[in-house]
Amino acid sequence: MKIYIMRHGETALNTKGVLQGRLDEPLNENGRALAEVTGRALKGLHFDGCFSSPLNRAMETAEIILRESANDISIAVDERITEISFGAMEGVNIYETGEEGLRLFKDPLNSRGFAGGESIPEVCERTQAFLKELVARDDGKTYLVSTHGCAMRGMINYLLDDPSDFWIGHAPYNCSFTIVDAEGGRARITDIDKIYYDKDKAVDYFK
Fold it and tell me: What is the pLDDT of residue 94?
């Protein structure tokens, strides 16, 4: 069983270092281009199923990937893999969110989150419930999962050698993959932040 967990393509808010959270921002032109290149690179890889966050940027990325890779399958929406809610700070630049915003990246597992939003441990709980349920199928199939930066990191956190390193050095690149192999109900990461486009176009907007 193989699971390709993907972060959505670039959005205009990504380029501004803004906390998007549940804001339903579409892909920008570069985001669509990255998804197209990635999808073409995956042509020949058969996906048996696809799951997506309900947010537009994740759904659109999944649609492009499936189209360009010639996988004619439907997309199942799962609320558990939507992005973290940043509450009152959604739409705000990360560098303007004060001490708690810095803690989100420096000490995420101890971050309380923002008013009206979620904490990182809460994101881990719901996204890992999704992944564990998928792994438990143990059906030998290949799946595409289209999600978000924080949700992706939360989903795989329990599989890391060092779960305290939540961000693994940086936020996932747009249209990057973490690949999980699973057998007998046990999962392991075989690749992290794999991209299928020119590495010079892989940008971390939260340096």
Answer: 86
Taking the chain (207 residues) in consecutive chunks of 10 residues, what is each chunk's mean pLDDT? 98 94 97 98 98 98 98 98 96 90 90 93 98 98 98 98 96 97 97 96 81
Q: Could you give the CA distance from residue 154 to residue 190 in angstroms, rounded to a whole number?
A: 17
Instruction: Kindly state whether residue 206 falls inside one of the protein's structural domains.
Output: no
Cα separation, 23 vs 25, whole angstroms: 6
The CATH number of the domain where 196 resides is what? Answer: 3.40.50.1240
Are the C-beta atoms of residues 93 and 18 closer than 8 Å to each other? yes
Exposed/middle/buried for 136, CB within 10 Å: 0-12, 13-18, 19+?
exposed
Query: Cα–Cα distance between 178 and 194 in angstroms, integer?
Result: 6
| Number of domains composing the chain | 1
The residue range of the domain holding 85 is: 2-201
Q: Is residue 97 part of a domain?
A: yes
Note whether 182 and 138 are within 8 A (CB).
yes
Q: What are the catalytic residues?
A: 8, 83
pLDDT of residue 100: 86
Q: How high is the pLDDT of residue 207?
A: 59
Contact 29, 48 (CB under 8 A): no
